[in-house]
Amino acid sequence: QVQLVESGGGLVQAGGSLRLSCAASGRTFSRANMGWFRQAPGKEREFVAAVIWSGGRTNYADSVKGRFTISRDNAKNTVYLQMNSLKPEDTAVYYCARDQDESSRFLSGQSRSYGYWGQGTQVTVSS
């Protein structure tokens, strides 16, 4: 059974940085694409970033390009989201997600492609 546990959220001033972590257990992590999504109050969940199972390719939402970096350590079964130059509009609950397929070469930004989700971690950016 797959379990995803996010950590690293918190309160930060605009312009600051946070690093989110997602620890995965269960089925083989190293063969699954991983993604980060976020949901702000009153808004739909939106794609933030994704990394392919090998770590060799990434994809980002336009709103975070150049500020956020997704990475993974398959030896530690962990995926990270480094968030720099944070803005108040980045305030949301951030969710880690695992692709429902393994060894996929398609790096999806659609939540329906991800079959496993963490419980989320709150990120609040003050102005």
Give your account of this protein's structure.
By secondary structure, the protein is an all-beta fold. It has no helices and eleven strands. The chain has strands spanning 3-7, 10-13, 18-25, 34-39, 46-51, 58-60, 68-73, 78-83, 92-99, 114-117, 121-126. Strands 2, 4, 5, 6, 9, 10 and 11 form a seven-stranded mixed beta sheet that branches. Strand 5 (46-51) and strand 6 (58-60) form a beta hairpin. The model has no long low-confidence stretch (mean pLDDT 96).
What's a concise summary of this model?
The protein has 127 residues and is mainly β. The chain is built from no helices and 11 strands.
Number of strands: 11
Q: State the helical fraction.
A: under 10%
Number of helices: 0
Mean pLDDT: 96
Note poorly predicted spans: none
Q: Please give the alpha-carbon distance between the first and last residues.
A: 40 Å
Elements, N to C (H/E): EEEEEEEEEEE
Shape: globular
Estimated share of beta-strand residues: over 45%
* Largest sheet: number of strands, sense, barrel closure: 7 strands, mixed
Q: Give the structural class.
A: mainly beta
Radius of gyration: 13 Å
